[in-house]
Design brief:
With about 425 residues, this protein is of the alpha/beta class. The chain folds into 2 domains: about 5-200, Flavin prenyltransferase-like (Rossmann fold); about 205-300 and about 315-415, CoaB-like (Rossmann fold, 3-Layer(aba) Sandwich). Helix content is about 35%, strand content about 25%. A hairpin with a 5-residue loop joins strand 6 (about 165) and strand 7 (about 170-175). Helix 9 crosses helix 10.
Amino acid sequence: MDEATVNDTASGGAAAGRPRVVLGVSGGIAAYKACELLRRLTESGHDVRVVPTASALNFVGAATWSALSGHPVSTEVWTDVHEVPHVRIGQQADLVVVAPATADVLAKAAHGLADDLLTNTLLTARCPVVFAPAMHTEMWEHPATRENVSTLRSRGALVIEPASGRLTGVDTGKGRLPEPAELFEACRRVLARGGAATVADLAGRHVVVSAGGTREPLDPVRYLGNRSSGKQGYALARVAAARGARVTLIEANTGLPDPAGVDVVRVGTAVQLREAVLKAAADADAVVMAAAVADFRPAEYAGGKIKKKEGQDPAPLSLVRNPDILAEISADRANPGQVVVGFAAETDDVLANGREKLRRKGCDLLVVNEVGERKTFGSEQNEAVVLAADGGETPVPYGPKEALAEIVWDLVAPRL
């Protein structure tokens, strides 16, 4: 740590009032993406110290990290040794995030090796630690890497699942660093939750979340749909990932970017959503049905566009029921103790209709909210009451959808 920062900290200056983040950068081609993560952290008021490995400097130079962070950059424990940086940096951090985290750094962290400033920092940190792995698919899937990841998670670290997509060269697969915007959201959620002991309370759990709104085709260009944006489901997925869960997000027609560390399955119709939920729920500890699933679909699909005929009214539209996915998975749980959460979007008699739906569906928790053209749909805010099968009621005041997501997982966790 540089002298100015030490003085600020000791005297209660600017650094003392800002969350201190250590951004570790290891030697992978994705190191360039960490520049964008650093920018988002600093611009949102965090005091960020970048600690790269020596190999990381082959991809992004020390001058770049220093200019973007406002702090000097070193890879060695011997720089400014009188300030004992190999101890102080980790001790004073509110969050340590390593992005990208190579297989080498994951292995060193899992085995407690400390041969440079970053690995020493990881050993001395007593704050939440987040790893964002990035490597080729074969390296990520290797038993040694998987065992190291399991070890780190068992100690309370949050190891974000890598994304799937284009890797170095022509290779494609799982191992891509999630986008910086989503990594920033994950870091923000971890910081908001506080101490290291509270971060990974869903570690080792597999949760399934549905989001968005299904579309039921009428002809090749038209469909029956709804106003759901999917933002509440995405908030649930992000928060669960930040709390250590393995998350499968089944999204219907949202167009939203994939949350960091979340496996995303894309569907269109209610029937497709049912198939994906049943498959994912087979080994899930909890299923949260936040998607707006169409109750009905057209009885017949027109193979060509339905034409408007001059002087003739359109033929009546015949509908058939879609499967009731929430009732089905509640009645036939894939695993003993599996927790099922439903959502009820109501326009009138909100609580009365919600209690009746909870009884009828048979789920453990039901999130009930009032919706309308200018309420909830597409908004970043939500207001709800979470009803429990045991009679409990938890009101959630108007606020960010992530706040509602936190409360839902607070209620799910003790039921697992």
